[in-house]
Every structure is written in C-alpha cells, then in structure tokens.
Specification:
With 140 residues, the protein is mainly alpha-helical. The protein is built from four helices and no strands. Helices cover 69% and strands 0% of the residues.
Length: 140
C-alpha cells in the first residue's frame, strides 16, 4: 500500500519571497513526516519530538514573517501577532487533547486547518511580504 502525503505542495502556495517559501516547504515536510509515521502505526507519544519540532518551527516562521512585516510597516502587525499567538496556544491544547484521547488525527486536522487559514492570511499580507528585500547566500 502506497503512503500518500498529507498536504501536497502546489505552485499556488508560493509567496514570491524565497525565505517564506522555503519555510513553508519545511513546515509541510514536517507535517507530512508526522502523517507518514502515524500511517506506519507509531503512537503520537513516540512522535512528540516531531510535534515539538513543528511547534518550534511555527514560532520560528511567525517570527520571520513578523520581522518582514515590521520592516514593511504592515498596518495590522499587532493583529497578525495576536492571531499567531492564539494558534500556538490552540496547537498546544490540541496536542494535549490528542495525547489524552489517543487521537493523533486531531493534530493533523488542526495543522491542515491552520495551513489553509495561513494561506488565506497570506492573501492579505502578500504585498508586504513580496516587498521585502534582503541579501541571501547563494551556493552555486
């Protein structure tokens, strides 16, 4: 039986800002890894390092976007920050519930819902994100 990815990367996900796109790829790769191991029958308790990695990476990604938006004078930055803080609190609560009830799919469903909402939020900030300028190291 072939195992499928939980969220498949699509061109429509691209934000035209390389660091954001790279981080989005990494987030989806980690979500898909969690999904893969759950399909393999691993319990969520065993996969908590992956869940903690996701939590850390969500915070890291939010900080990156916040920095870009701050530099671009995004007028709704405080609202953006509050929404992201709420997501972190909700993610922790879902993880606790999933562990307690032995329902790891709660975590995956939350992450898919978050991803969809995150992309919708990007519709509002894309102008500010794509306006970002920065020097990136390129290895040829």
């Amino acid at each position: 039986m072939k195992k499928t990815l939980y969220i498949i990367w699509q061109e429509s996900f691209e934000q035209d800002e390389s660091i954001i796109d790279e981080q989005h790829h990494a987030l989806l790769a980690t979500i898909n890894s969690l999904h893969y191991f759950l399909q393999q029958g691993h319990a969520l308790e065993i996969l908590m390092p992956t869940v903690k990695l996701l939590l850390s990476y969500l915070r890291f990604h939010n900080s990156t976007e916040e920095g870009i938006l701050r530099a671009a004078d995004y007028p709704h930055l405080d609202e953006y920050i509050k929404k992201n803080e709420k997501v972190i609190i909700e993610f922790k609560a879902i993880c606790r519930e999933a562990l307690f009830n032995k329902e790891p799919d709660l975590v995956l469903r939350f992450l898919k819902k978050w991803w969809i909402a995150h992309l919708e939020m990007h519709d509002n900030i894309k102008l500010y994100i794509s306006d970002a300028s920065g020097q990136y190291c390129r290895v040829d």
